[in-house]
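User: I'm new to structure prediction. If I give you an amino acid sequence, what do you actually give back? Let's try with this one:
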Amino acid sequence: MEKRSAPLWNDAWPVDLEQRLEGILAPAAANAVEIFFRADDIGAPDAGFRRLMHLFRRHRMPLCLAVVPAWIDRKRWRQMQEFTVHDPLWCWHQHGLCHANHQESGRKSEFGSHRSCETIRSDLVRGREHLQAILGPAFFPVFTPPWNRCSLETLQILAREGYAAVSRTVNARPAATSLIPDLAVAVDLHTRKEQDPALGWQNLLDELACAADSGRIGIMIHHQLMNDRCFAFLDLFLALCRGQAGLCPGTFRDLLSPVS
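Assistant: Good question. You get back a string of structure tokens that encode the predicted 3D arrangement of the chain. For your 260 residues, that looks like this:
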């Protein structure tokens, strides 16, 4: 099935977009707010992936890359070497195993409540070992569950297996606080459902403002859904972020190892 950009990316930007973004980022910088970007569904180094990587590298902005183990092999990893994969800008971590839905009903989940603990643990470990074998020291043990959903049993297994953190959406349930850090994203750039572009823009800016008020802005990216307007927006946004000296961009490594 063809993947399409959300309606707001097929419509004109608000005329005052840059001013509204600056109105969010300037106070965030004054308060030394953390910001990170998480790109999901990483596997094939296609044209959209390369465009995304070049954009972040040009702005010298960190990017957390959620790699689907079943989608990466040694050939594809070799093709990614053009981006200096060990550059501290990048944080390569685990995104499920196959990105397959295993729920028998309800919302999609690869590591949901309809699977046994044994199967969950087996898939987690298989995925991690595959990434460790291919990515080597570039791999960082954070787990992003496909569709940002996983069961309580999954969180417990992640903690027992020594993962440094999980990364889901803000207010995801079940809560992970007592088990493992949750480096949550709060802003969804591309898997948006609003059919009215104006409402989509308002909700997107509200998400950014709310995240800034919380002290950490986590932004989720899906490069397969990005058109030219998406890339132009991200180019503008990264430039505005770079222009705010007090803003604190980082990867999962930085968030988990704050400077004292």
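You can read the tokens as a compact description of the fold. Here is one thing that stands out. The chain has a mean pLDDT of 94.
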